[in-house]
Here is the input.
Amino acid sequence: MSFSPASIKSKLPRVGTTIFTTMSTLAQEVGAVNLGQGFPDFDCDPRLLDMLNAAARAGHNQYPPMAGVLALRQAVADKVNELYDASYDPVNEITITAGATQAIQTALTAIVHPGDEVIIFEPVYDSYDPVIRMNGGTPIYARLPFPDFRPDFAALRALITPKTRAIIINTPHNPTATLWSRDELNQLALILRDTNIVLISDEVYEHMVFDGVRHQSVTSIPDLAERAFVISSFGKTYHVTGWKIAYCLAARELMVEFRKAHQFIVFTVHTPSQHALANYMALRTHETLPEFYQAKRDYFLAQVAPTKLAWSRAPATYFALASYAHLDAYNQLSDVEFALKLARENGVVCIPLSAFYSNGEDNRVVRFCFAKKEQTLALAVDRLKTL
Ligand SMILES: Cc1ncc(COP(=O)(O)O)c(C=O)c1O
Here is the structure.
């Protein structure tokens, strides 16, 4: 008898090739401008590359401490203290991870047991649901209702049961480019107050908030911070998504459990990048990021204004949403069909918003990423005008 791979019971039977892969492959096949997946098409600061090279040349090439290079954890603690008036001990309360994706996976693995429920808000980033399931948990879907995407706290309260182990929020939010207000975080704190529910706060876009608005971090609200894993990504902030390096903040007892899982998932993270980032953080370039991305947003939205699509204002992140619901020539198409047509016939790749819903909710809206060089955006705009 030979081995039958089919005998393996899939842990993720419903997961196939994602729309992100499909759209990126299509972009290459048809030579379309790729404003689909969320990553920059420009390089990072050359000083960061020099620091990476210097760190490797200086011999920082063996395993660093399990929780990360202390100088980097200290730099993160200083930044968080300065921005959010929050105090995290770099020794016990900060861990460097292989991207935010691993931090989310590790936090969930540390706390979710079979039968637990984890509430997530849709439209939702695609990694949360499968990781909850891989740990034997059940994702419970709250909604950020279209078109404003504001949390509905009465509906959230109704979803909480004795089985609720955790809630995941994401602010600023991918894919809707919205962000939670302080008042909304306070309302969440009220709901969680007399519970043992853990909060996982995905804040990877914390430095991409525009128009003079300040990001409201869970770290700055003590009632939330005491029960929270707060996650941010160096990849997003410093234009190095391929380095896959991020961090997680949590109160000491939560972090003990996080690290138990972390040490057997990756143990630790690429050493030279950590030294490079520790040095680079002293240059405080995160302070110029809102201005940098706001200029891209303003350029892109001004240029696309004459197109037939209806654009949302994008107060945060590097995504902008566009609706075609009002266009009779197109609104019979599902958002997936529309995105495929836009790629094949107009040469621009975007992501249909239904990809972020468990039930395929389709409001005739697509997402564009404007973290691109001006010439890339200009080419995309010319092509969008052919719609
Ligand atoms: C909301 C959200 N969380 C997490 C991630 C993953 O970040 P990283 O590349 O650091 O794993 C992304 C990347 O697109 C994201 O949009």
